[in-house]
Amino acid sequence: MAAALLTLTALSCVGIAVSFGLAFLPAQVSNHVLIGVFATMLNLLAHSLMMFYLIGKGKAVKEAVAEGALDGDYVRRITRVRAPVFSRAILALTCTMAAAIIGASVDVRVLPTWPHMLLAAAAIATNAYAFSAEMSALAVSARIVDEVNSRLTNAHG
């Protein structure tokens, strides 16, 4: 599941970057819009699923630790590792949505292009920032789950 979430998030980030590049090619405006809308929807899905997945991992660790009466700081560690994901992902989602909304205003000539361009650049940067936190959180949370599973197996075996 973690690999699928990372792939989905990476594809959405690449889509946003490709859309950004296409915006500078006048003959590619329709592709810019098409890819931008698709990548934005994919991005919203990817970051939302990532956050729910990490919430579920934390809950599973908490329940396993309680049921197995394990000592250790597993719950604190998994909470600490996933915390940056939520703030960074929400920032990335906000910038991405704002860029898309402002882009629609540019398309109907209500606003100039520069606010959309700045927000799109911010969306790319904040998505990269969130993606790095997500990769780290998934790796560390997997190690924590492995530790808990190992302790539970040893306690029952």
Number of helices: 4
What's the story with the biggest beta sheet?
none
Question: Got a strand count?
Answer: 0
What is the structural class?
mainly alpha
Please, how many domains?
A: 1
* Low-pLDDT ranges: none
Overall residue-averaged pLDDT value: 94
Shape descriptor: elongated
Strand coverage percent: under 5%
Helix content: over 70%
Distance between the termini: 28 Å
The helix/strand order is HHHH
How large is the radius of gyration?
19 Å
Oligomer state equals single chain
Keywords:
4 helices; 157 residues; single chain; 0% strand; mainly alpha
In short:
By secondary structure, this protein is an all-alpha fold. 89% of the residues lie in helices and 0% in strands. It has helices spanning 2-22, 29-68, 74-107, 113-156.
Polypeptide structure, described:
The model has no long low-confidence stretch (mean pLDDT 94). Helix 1 packs antiparallel against helix 2 (29-68). 89% of the residues lie in helices and 0% in strands. The protein is built from 4 helices and no strands. The chain has one domain (2-156). The longest helix is centred in the C-terminal third of the chain and has 44 residues, at 113-156. It is mainly alpha-helical.
Strand-helix topology:
Elements: H1 2-22, H2 29-68, H3 74-107, H4 113-156
Helix pairs in contact: 1-2, 1-4, 2-3, 2-4, 3-4
